Write a sequence for this structure.
């Protein structure tokens, strides 16, 4: 059974199960998600993820299961029903300024600390519009995890 999992190549491919690209980002639907050692309930729970809306990268698919990786590199399998296509991001920079407009000279709205989680709306070039806590603004793409460097988000 181990050899039959669909594993994503380095380049984007299309998954046979869902017809969606691999790899791709998604988010957790629940604040308690069992991360299993393999694609099925017969595999042991390796980790329990406890942050609803946390961004994860889907790297493989097998039937109703998705292999995911979180920002720290932890990997495992979850049922596809526990994932959402609603995009979110994590701030990876030590501190990142949330700007009113997608420009370095724009008015700063807030300072985001490393590990802050927010909703991703769209990206324009090197800037992404996000909602962090109660503030919505723009953060440089390189300061975020949950978006590919050349990915278009509208």
């Amino acid at each position: 059974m181990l050899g039959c999992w669909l594993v994503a190549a380095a380049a984007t491919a299309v998954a046979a199960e869902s017809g969606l690209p691999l790899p791709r980002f998604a988010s957790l639907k629940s604040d308690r998600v069992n991360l299993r050692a393999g694609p099925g309930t017969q595999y042991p729970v390796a980790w329990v993820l406890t942050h609803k809306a946390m961004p994860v990268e889907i790297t493989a698919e097998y039937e109703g299961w998705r292999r995911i990786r979180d920002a720290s590199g932890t990997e495992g399998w979850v049922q596809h029903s526990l994932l959402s296509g609603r995009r979110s991001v994590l701030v990876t920079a030590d501190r990142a300024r949330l700007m009113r407009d997608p420009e370095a000279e724009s008015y700063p709205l807030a300072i985001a600390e490393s590990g802050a989680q927010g909703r991703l709306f769209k990206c324009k070039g090197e800037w992404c519009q996000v909602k962090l806590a109660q503030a919505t603004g723009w953060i440089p793409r390189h300061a975020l995890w949950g978006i590919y460097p050349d990915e278009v988000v509208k």
The radius of gyration is 16 Å. The domain at 89-145 is CATH 2.30.30.40 (SH3 type barrels.). The first strand starts at residue 6 and ends at 7. The chain has no helices and 17 strands.
